[in-house]
Amino acid sequence: MKQLLNKLAAKALLFLLALGTGVGGFWATLFIFSQWDTLWTGVGYYSSNSCAQAMENRYLQAQELARLLQYQAWGAPLSYLDHQRISDLKSALDGSRTNFRFSVRHNDTGALLYDNLDDGAVIEGSVHTVTRGSVPVIYDEDDSHSKDYYVWNGEKQYYLLYVVLSDGTEQLLTPADAALAAQYGYTFTGYTWNYQLSQDSRLMYIELAIEYGVADPLTVEDEFWEGLEDFGEYARYLPALAILTVVLDAACVLLTLLLCKTAGRQADGSPAPLSRFDRIPLDLLLLLDAGAILLLLVGGAPLTTALNATGPATDLVVGLACISSGIGLCLLSLLLTLIVRVRAGHLWRNTLIRRLIFSLHALLRTISHSWPMTRRVIVLFLLYLLGSYLTNLTVILAPVYQGAVLWLVCRWAIQWRRVRQGTEEILGGDPAYKIDTRGMYVDLAQHARQLNDLGGTISQAVEERIRSERFRAELITNVSHDLKTPLTSILNYVDLMKKRPIDDPQAQSYLEVLSRKSQRLKKLTEDLVEASKASTGTLTVRLERLGLVQLVQQALGEFEDRFALSDLKVVAEYPEREVWVLADGHQLWRVIDNLLSNCNKYTLEGTRIYLGISSRDGQGVFVVKNISRQQLNIPPRQLMERFVRGDSSRATEGSGLGLSIARSLTELQHGTFVIDIDGDLFKVTVSIPLAPDPEPPQE
């Protein structure tokens, strides 16, 4: 589960889910709190926004009907359309067609002008809640045209002036049209419109009082009836929406916790390297996030207002979702990068303020370090004296200051000991050792870096030498391999020519020389390949328990005839018990074969070859001694190098690789190969680790 959560795709999915549930839970929580009264206190339909909106529409119709009825009562000339409008409004506001109830009375006298209540009913007993309003009506009998105005005190406090011109056209004027309204005698006071009377005018003015409300219970299927049904459905789903809100909020918290737990972790749970986003300075990131959130809030407010006024509800929802998603993205990404920085230890280190402080500190250090060391010591001593003088003025600061100075001196001593220990490690044979210079004083750190560079130079020289040796071995192997193909052809053709009848004896001698030299070249090539493989350690070695005495005796059996031809006598000394060694049978056989072959080539005729086998110090030891035919005028170490032979005249057959190959094969089996020369006495000692005793069979 942890590996799954640490994968990049899973983190991205968790991030999107946390962002989505967070945005959805935020708006759902706001909505639930806005509907708190409906959800928990049982407020019904009559207090809902739906009922208020429908009642406002009906109230506007009742106002219009009241004004027209008052004009009719004054005997004002009404058009056919006005009479038709009165009929339509009475029909629409009839108590049998709407649940809206109202009554219109003169504000001064209380005389009833119109209502849609049942006979004998009063407004207080017919509606759920009584709401009161007023309608001002004005009429000028002396003017050739009538004027009517009303004030709409809605949510936007928007004021209109309705003017009927003499030609019968209608015009709506706003406070911005004050110049045009003044032509008809109207001025706007900031709250309502006033009419300036002329000397011969006869103005008729009255203010009507309206009481209105919604019937309780509802009796007619109208917009209030439909609103009640919709409200019932809406209220029914409010508890489920509240539960969904809790689920969204809980999911957001859980997903955020999972993101925080996996932040800064790779798929295998190891710390992840910092991304480019996490490397942005923290203080700069905080400023960018604050600016982005402020831009979303300031720039999104006019957009949502415009969408709410002109666009459909879906556009408003999409706009709010985009703004809140942007804010949530900024906050969630900031939270995760804070956790990553804390875990990586980069919370404070990756800030612009810290960089500024350290830049100033580095500048001061550069200025101080440019002085010679002697001058710095003098300045530090003078500062110490000054600090001692100032702190001695108070009893409390003096020990604190001296303790701080002592701590700095002890810190210098500890760092010097670290440098000295590192020097001992490098001189002791570990040139790759690096002295830790973190937190060191400048002079000590510079000295430590110089020692580290010295160790690195030594390591580089050793690596170059090893690389050169490896290159030389690979070169020998490649050249030997390239020589094998033409050499094989030469040998094959020489063999074919020997099988052909050739009468000339001189040609036969030539073929014998070609055959002999080709065989020698073949042996040299094979020895080159073997020497290269042995020195580079590419040969496969299978260590097993072997009897050293038995192996030597078998080898002597194969060389018995050749020793007899060379008039050599073997004197062998074997132990009473078999010497069991841990070695590779094939490779150890080649070592013994090389030594005996070397004895056969270079031992003085008529002398003896001494062989000895023993065991000491956990090693099986095989010793070969013989008298050299030629004068040995080279040191033993040089004799074991490649292409070096005991016969300086190089008159005998041989490649000079036998001893080198034998030594490499012995070392591959964790043994040692040592040559000793005393005058013409040639001695080789081969030591192979003894094999452990076999475990007794279990019964």
Explain how this protein is built.
α17 runs antiparallel to α19 (about 660-670). The protein has about 700 residues and is an alpha+beta fold. Helices cover about 55% and strands about 15% of the residues. The model is unreliable at about 140-160, about 195-200 and about 640-655 (pLDDT under 50). Among the domains are: about 15-130 and about 220-250, no CATH class; about 275-370; about 540-690, Histidine kinase-like ATPase, C-terminal domain (Heat Shock Protein 90), CATH 3.30.565.10. About 20% of the residues are buried. The strands form five sheets. The protein has a five-stranded mixed sheet with strand order 10-12-13-15-14. A four-stranded antiparallel sheet has the order 2-1-8-3, with helices on one face.
Describe how the helices and strands are arranged.
Blueprint: H1 2-5, H2 8-34, H3 36-41, H4 49-74, H5 80-92, E1 100-106, E2 112-115, H6 123-126, E3 131-140, E4 161-164, E5 170-173, H7 178-182, E6 186-188, E7 193-195, E8 203-214, H8 223-262, H9 282-310, H10 313-344, H11 352-369, H12 373-391, H13 397-427, H14 442-499, H15 505-536, E9 544-547, H16 548-565, E10 569-573, E11 580-583, H17 585-602, E12 608-616, E13 619-627, H18 636-639, H19 658-668, E14 672-678, E15 681-689
Parallel strand pairs: 10-12
Antiparallel strand pairs: 1-2, 1-8, 3-8, 4-5, 6-7, 9-11, 12-13, 13-15, 14-15
